[in-house]
Amino acid sequence: MKKKIFILIFLVLVATLFFAFDLDRFFTLEYIKNSRQEFQIFYDQQPVFTVFLFFITYVTVVGTNLPGATILGLAGGALFGFSIAVVTISFASSIGATIACFFSRNLFRDYVQRKFGDRLDKVNKGIEEEGAFYLFSMRLIPAIPFVAINLLMGLTPMKLRTFYWVSQIGMLPGTMVYVNAGSELGKIDSLAGIIQPGLIISFVILGFFPLMVKKAVAFVKARRSV
Question: By the 8 A CB rule, do 137 and 173 touch?
Fold first, then answer.
């Protein structure tokens, strides 16, 4: 109970400070584009500290479900270049997502399991058996909200270490897309233009491919055992 109260107070405090000091104004496409030169000068003078500060900011934003992760992804690509940005954001986003999953699990899982336990038995069993495949598929599909996945998986019995490494791998393609777009920051007029319908379809196919392979292998094994 004490852990839940502490987490709740922490999240409320972070959100309150974020909006009370109007910090969301720093997480807009216009601000990032207008401040790119100043950021670049700071990065050239203190590269290690800049990357570290960016990393902590990204983890905090994702871990507490604050808006701005997409903008930070673009900013990282524009500021650090492709390789450094991909590595930094890949680890920061995975760690932040795992923290968000942890918060969700401690705040809501017990209640949900008690309330809907009987109806969730099959879901829990499915997650235990094939949860990594489902999570991997969801991570590859940009149309599924990033925050929703973190919160919903926190309600399941999936181990946090599994959630972390699957997220690390599954989010990598999307991270690369946003970082690459960030290198062309001056040409971007809206966030909606980054992910095109054709690209979403490609990610959907890629996301469901592991599940289709798993089902195909299981089908072949079942046929051979008959």
Answer: no
pLDDT per residue over 203-222, tens digit each?
A: 566 566 666 656 665 665 56
The reported pLDDT for the residue numbered 83 is: 94
Phi, psi of 44 (to 5 degrees): -65, -35
pLDDT band of residue 136 (cuts 50, 70, 90) is confident
Q: Is residue 223 classed as helix, strand or coil in its secondary structure?
A: helix
What distance, in Å, lies between the first and last C-alpha atoms of the chain? 51
Alpha carbon distances (Å) from 103 to 9, 24, 143, 146, 204: 12, 22, 23, 15, 28
Structural domain boundaries, residue 214: 2-225
Both tokens of residue 171? Answer: 């989010």
CA dist 165 and 146 (Å) reads 16
How far apart are the C-alpha atoms of 159 and 105, rounded to whole Å?
A: 11
pTM assigned to the model: 0.83
What is the total count of domains within the chain?
1
Categorise residue 81: left if φ over 0, alpha if ψ from -120 to 50, beta otherwise. left
Q: Exposed (0-12), middle (13-18) or buried (19+): which is 98, by Cβ within 10 Å? A: buried
Q: Residue 92 burial (CB < 10 Å; 0-12/13-18/19+)?
A: buried
